Structures are given as structure tokens and as C-alpha cells.
Amino acid sequence: MKWQTLINDTFIRISEELERVLDGLSVDELNRRPDGGNSIGWLTWHLTRSHDRNLSELAGREQIWIRDGWYARFNCNPDPGETGVGHSADEAAAFSSPEAGVILKYHRSVVGLASEYIEESLSEMELEREATSPTLKSTFPVERRLVGIISEGLQHVGQAAYVRGLIKGQGWLGR
């Protein structure tokens, strides 16, 4: 197995876990905030927006959020910097999730971007390249940014799974 396949498979695994978390949830359940925490809808939107912004910046492409008009399907503005980073509790609470299918379609598009970037551009030389994020106003090697993207994805899908457990009860994953 090539190491690029391992990275790509990690993005696919995050997507598969996201599909399990969102399976069968109503819009009401996506927007529910147990104990005032973040909703599943907000967490999965934030995860996908962050992946889109970061991967688009690394690949030197326009964000799917803007290019394909996903912002309109989420009833949001086409702001390339709006990913939920820095949202207050009130801002996160104000987020109104679309149906789970909309979140999944957007996420699958972002996973497609990840696969294209990994297959077309990700080499050892690319991993060492210093990549500046105009949104975050920071510069790090691509390798460090990819690890951060993956780490964030795993954390947020786990948080969403936890919230689903609070809403649906134990055993919802069939495990």
C-alpha cells in the first residue's frame, strides 16, 4: 500500500463514520443541543467546512462551498472564512441544519476533493511545502496541516456520535 492510500482511506473512514452518525436523523434531531452543547448539524457542518477550506487552500482551488453553491443549500453566506472556527455558543446555537442528506452530499464532494488532491499532488516534496492559510493567517508544512485536518475530522465525528448517543440512547451503532 502506498502511504497516499493510507491518508485517502482515513478521509474515507471519517466519511463512513459521518454517514453512520447522520443515518435516519430528522432535522429536529440534527439541531438538538443536549445540555446546551453543539448540535450534530453544527458539528458535521463545521467538520465539512473546515475540511473544504483547508483542502481547497492546499490544492490551490476554489472552495466547493462557494464554487458549487453549497452555502445556499445551508442558507448561509458564501464567506470562504466562515467555517465555525471561533463561533460563540450563541452563534453555534443559531445554526439551522439542513437535512442529513444535504450534509452528506456536501461532505462527499469534499472527500472527492481530498482524493483528487492526494492522488494528483501529494508527494513527499508536497508534504514539506510551506502552506499559508489566508483564512487562519498561519503558515505550516502541508504535512502538519493534513494531520490537523484528519485529527479535527476524527474529533468532530466522534463528538457528533456522542451527541447522537445522548439523543438516541445506547446501542444506536449496533455494537
Question: Can you tell me the CATH topology?
Answer: Four Helix Bundle (Hemerythrin (Met), subunit A)
Q: Segments where pLDDT lies below 50 for 5+ residues? A: none
**Helix percentage:** 55-70%
**Broad structural category:** mainly alpha
Number of E strands: 2
How does CATH name the architecture?
A: Up-down Bundle
In terms of DSSP E residues, the strand content is under 5%
Average of pLDDT: 94
Q: Separation of termini?
A: 29 Å
Structure in words:
- The structure is a single chain.
- The protein has 175 residues and is mainly α.
- It has a single domain (3-168), classed as Four Helix Bundle (Hemerythrin (Met), subunit A).
- It is built from 9 helices and 2 strands, in the order ααααααααββα.
- Strands 1-2 form a two-stranded antiparallel ribbon.
- Helix 1 packs parallel to helix 9 (142-168), helix 3 runs parallel beside helix 7 (100-121) and helix 3 packs antiparallel against helix 9 (142-168).
- It is globular.
- The mean pLDDT is 94.
Attribute tags:
175 residues; mainly alpha; Four Helix Bundle (Hemerythrin (Met), subunit A); 2 strands
